[in-house]
């Protein structure tokens, strides 16, 4: 198999046979000609079911995630919804508690309408054996978690599921990993035992903050068939243009993620040494409490582009810091070429009750950074001046 960068550039991206174009055209046609009823001339029939641009995008994601199949969706949220739609009335899901707020919202305010029950756990490795029951169909992990960047050992969770299934051989439980925060350049969950890996493509995979899109990938034929059926039946699919843009973004994934991660590593070290900072959460730091999982699960020794830290001076200092940066833009989202920052307690995680949020380490003084691919010295200078402005 070729290296990651070669696959990112070439997978799903052959030359156009007719024109020789090196980059695929955007295929806007909604329908495709047939030579006889139900005998399409080529591979495609109707663009909701399949489309050349979505196909190219799905092919490269499958290659990068070491998967047989990948399926594109209109957003990361649509990918989550379709995965949950494959369950039926009375089914049970176990999820880590500090999942993305929108995933938590989907579990507790949408999936419950279809009779799906979700149990949350702050310590899945310890509690999963007691949370699994005869109705459990999915276990949902985000690693690193958002925004506190704690890690979950994917293969350990898988082994708990395998042990349970040995005693309940007719019950199939799928392990889903949301890999949005790292991208397949750093972590390939299917290699560690996950059954489905999903992404908000909106973040690192597209990487330029100009597409909202999602994807799910798997090696399991039955899961892929069921997801493909629901993808078409529900119709929450990405447009050809978004698929084309996201495919273009993927060609530089390895370069972007490496640079963002190197920047984040330098910034995390700078913050950890600062007397204006209470605590730094970054998987790449040697004193991260789950160093062993980092060493086992993260490729290339990279911690990713996301950091969170608690600033001294409470929520006033957090607010002042986020209004004082000149390169980091105060905005939600992450994973783009440009650096962003936010205060989770009042932005992305504002909907979670205070006690629950603080139990998960999301205090009012916590700031989340999405490090972009700008120059390291400029980003550190920006953090330095904002820390001074916020704490003086
Ligand atoms: C970890 C994670 N998963 C899923 C989503 C949902 O993706 P989207 O915004 O593309 O619907 C997000 C969005 O922020 C996210 O951060």
From TrEMBL:
Modified residues (N6-(pyridoxal phosphate)lysine): 203
Alphabetized Pfam families for the sequence: Cys_Met_Meta_PP
GO molecular function, one term: cystathionine gamma-lyase activity
Pathway listed: Amino-acid biosynthesis; L-cysteine biosynthesis; L-cysteine from L-homocysteine and L-serine: step 2/2
InterPro entries: Cys/Met-Metab_PyrdxlP-dep_enz, PyrdxlP-dep_Trfase, PyrdxlP-dep_Trfase_major, PyrdxlP-dep_Trfase_small
GO cellular component term of the entry, any: cytoplasm
Key word Amino-acid biosynthesis present: yes
Keyword Amino-acid biosynthesis: yes
UniProt cross-references to CDD domains, sorted A to Z: CGS_like
Gene Ontology terms: biological process: cysteine biosynthetic process via cystathionine; positive regulation of hydrogen sulfide biosynthetic process; transsulfuration
Keyword terms of this UniProt record: Amino-acid biosynthesis, Cysteine biosynthesis, Pyridoxal phosphate
EC number: 4.4.1.1
Obligatory cofactor(s): pyridoxal 5'-phosphate
Family, as annotated: Belongs to the trans-sulfuration enzymes family.
Name the record gives this protein: cystathionine gamma-lyase
């Amino acid at each position: 198999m070729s290296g990651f960068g070669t696959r990112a550039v070439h997978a799903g991206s052959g030359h156009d046979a007719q024109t020789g174009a090196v980059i695929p055209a955007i295929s806007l046609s909604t329908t495709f000609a047939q030579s006889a009823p139900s005998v399409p001339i080529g591979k495609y029939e109707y663009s909701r079911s399949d489309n050349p641009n979505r196909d190219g995008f799905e092919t490269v994601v499958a290659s990068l995630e070491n998967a047989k199949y990948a399926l594109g969706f209109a957003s990361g949220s649509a990918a989550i919804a379709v995965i949950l739609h494959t369950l039926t009335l009375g089914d049970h899901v176990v999820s880590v508690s500090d999942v993305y707020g929108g995933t938590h919202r989907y579990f507790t305010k949408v999936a419950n309408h279809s009779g799906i029950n979700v149990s949350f756990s702050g310590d899945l490795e310890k509690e999963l054996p007691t949370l699994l029951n005869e109705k459990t169909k999915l276990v949902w992990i985000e690693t690193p978690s958002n925004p506190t960047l704690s890690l979950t050992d994917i293969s350990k969770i898988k082994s708990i599921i395998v042990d349970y299934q040995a005693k309940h051989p007719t019950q199939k439980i799928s392990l889903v990993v949301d890999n949005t925060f790292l991208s397949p350049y750093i972590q390939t969950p299917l290699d560690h035992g996950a059954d489905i890996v999903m992404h908000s493509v909106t973040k690192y995979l597209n990487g330029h903050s100009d597409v909202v899109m999602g994807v799910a990938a798997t090696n399991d034929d039955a899961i892929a068939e069921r997801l493909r059926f629901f993808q078409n039946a529900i119709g929450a699919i990405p447009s050809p243009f978004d698929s084309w843009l996201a495919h273009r973004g993927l060609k530089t994934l390895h370069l972007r993620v490496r640079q963002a991660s190197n920047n984040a590593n330098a910034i995390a070290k700078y913050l950890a040494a600062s007397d204006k900072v209470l605590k730094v959460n970054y998987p790449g730091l040697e004193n991260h409490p789950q160093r062993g999982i980092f060493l086992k699960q993260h490729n290339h020794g990279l911690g990713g582009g996301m950091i969170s830290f608690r600033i001294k001076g409470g929520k006033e200092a957090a607010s002042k810091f986020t209004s004082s940066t000149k390169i980091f833009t105060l905005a939600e989202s992450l994973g783009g070429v440009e650096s962003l920052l936010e205060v989770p307690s009042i932005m992305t995680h504002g909907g979670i009750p205070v006690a629950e949020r603080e139990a998960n380490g999301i205090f009012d003084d916590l700031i989340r950074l999405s490090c972009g691919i700008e120059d390291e010295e400029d980003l550190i200078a920006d953090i330095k001046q904002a820390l001074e402005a916020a704490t003086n």
